[in-house]
Amino acid sequence: GQATPPGTGQFFVMMSPQEVLQGGSQRSIAPRTHPYSPKSEAPRTTRDEKRRAQHNEVERRRRDKINNWIVQLSKIVPDCSMESTKSGQSKGGILSKACDYIQELRQSNHRLSEELQGLDQLQLDNDVL
Fold first, then answer.
1. Where is the stretch described as Disordered (predicted)?
2. What's the predicted TM-score (pTM) here?
3. What integer pLDDT is reported at residue 79 of this predicted model?
């Protein structure tokens, strides 16, 4: 016999072990008329299309903001101008140079701070003399 679970669109053939093991009688299985697809091939609804379009717009704006900030960095960081080469620098190259420049500025700032403290100490020593 055959049993069809409700709502699945599939059916199961229930047979006894003797029927399964019998090699004498072969059953014919009808081929599929279309390829099997677990996902329904229904067209996208307008709601899904709106959500997708909105997501694409938000993502495009996010990328544009990131690209604009990278261009700003390229203008600020020395030897990193987009005009310095024909095609401009890569985004990774710009970010790498920006990180290097920030490290240089921090080291310079620390060195100048130490020099200022030394000068302040000299000023105090001169005032005492």
1. 1-61
2. 0.53
3. 84
